[in-house]
Amino acid sequence: MKTKRHAGKRPTPVASLILAVALVLGISATAVADRTHLKPGFNMFSPQQDIELGKKYSSEVEHQIPMLNDPKVDNYLNQLGHRLDAHLPPGTPAYPFQYKCVNDMAINAFALPGGFIYINRGVIEAADTEAQLAGVMAHETSHVVLRHSTNQVSKAYAWQAPLSVLGGALGSGSIVGVLAQMGISSGMNMLFLKYSRTDESQADILGTQILYDTGYDPRAMAQFFEKIQAESKGNPAEFFSDHPNPDHRIERVDEEVQKLGGPPPGYKSDSPEFEQIKHYVHSLPPAPKQKAVPSKGNSESTQPAPPSGGYLNFQSSDVQLRYPDTWSNYGQGSTLAFAPQGALVDDGHGNTALAYGVIVSTFEPHNDSGSAISLGAATDQLLQNMLHSNPQMRVVRQHESMQLGGQAALSALLSNDSPKGGRESDWLVTTLRPNGLFYIVCVAPQDEYNSYKQAFQTLIDSTRFPQ
Ligand code: ZN
Question: Which residues are tagged catalytic?
Answer without folding.
Answer: 140, 204
